[in-house]
Amino acid sequence: MKSLLFLMLFLFPQEDLKQLQAVFDTSAGPFVIEFYPDQAPNHVAKFIERVRAGFYTGTAFHSMVGHGIVQGGDPETRNVNARDKYGTGGFNLGLKPEISTVPFAQGTVVATILPGEPGSAGTQFFICVTDQLQFTGQFTAFGRVIEGIEVVDRISITPADDNQIARERIDLKSVTIRPIPKPAPPPFTTETIDELRQHRVVMETSKGNIVLEMLPDKAPEHVRHFLRLASLGVYDKTAFHRVAPGFVIQAGDLNTRTEPVPQVAQKYVVNIRAEINDVKHVAGIISMARGDAIDSALTSFFIVLSNQPALDGTYTVFGRVVEGMDVVEKITAVPNENERPAERIDIYSMKVEKR
Q1: What's this model's pTM, rounded to 2 decimal places?
Q2: Domains identified in the chain and CATH numbers
């Protein structure tokens, strides 16, 4: 018997659940979770088992609180005509609570239980769209969203009735388990200066399009940083927040976003060291904004409207406007109060293109 057990372990070695992730394909978009097998080994194993059996395919997210939580995993949701039963199925799979100190921060995936029945967990789960720290230590946390929290947030604002049951269907088309892929290098890390020079950024605004040319020979790390953020959608759905006629217009403040920064991009929103160069701040030049500290540039940038020699040698020039100065003039003409535009000047998108 011992030799047989040894042979089975040799042929079928135990998986390292920390090296697996689940990919959710929903009608609202995809997101990815990783697991806490050290804190909730039985819940993780049961969830992965159910996924591999195809259990979640065809179910729906049935309950949500806007920007708070979303809930899914109920087999009753396969029946589009059984809405009155949504939230009642999939409990009591013999899972005992595995309470840990994992904080219920944004993205935490939690086993749903029946009120007053701590051992009733089963296939249902909820996801914290935002921090829900008041639940820490009360339920079993078994995973976290590591990509696509903005998709989960979008699901959370699905119209719901007074019982928080979705009025519109958000389908879970499939869930698959895969090994955690090797991390890819950050975008625009490996390109040469000549290769970076081949890229430009098209800024689609509510006043028209502005095309930006990069100057990687003058500020290579700023160009990489800017192209990286633009390619990952960081600047999409932001707005120009400063209009100073005769001086600059400024954008890139993430407080102007109408949606959260995409989760995949959040780790790249970091300060960047100054690369002061000899390019003069003349009309059409793009330079990185910063605070008092010279290395405090983050995401904000400005377009120069006229010769500004006082800025030379103080701010990092990394690009110039090559098309759309007429659009810049339209933005400059927007009334402002203490340099704050009186109307929202949207940046719908910033797309990186290769010339």
Answers
A1: 0.77
A2: 16-179 (2.40.100.10), 193-354 (2.40.100.10)
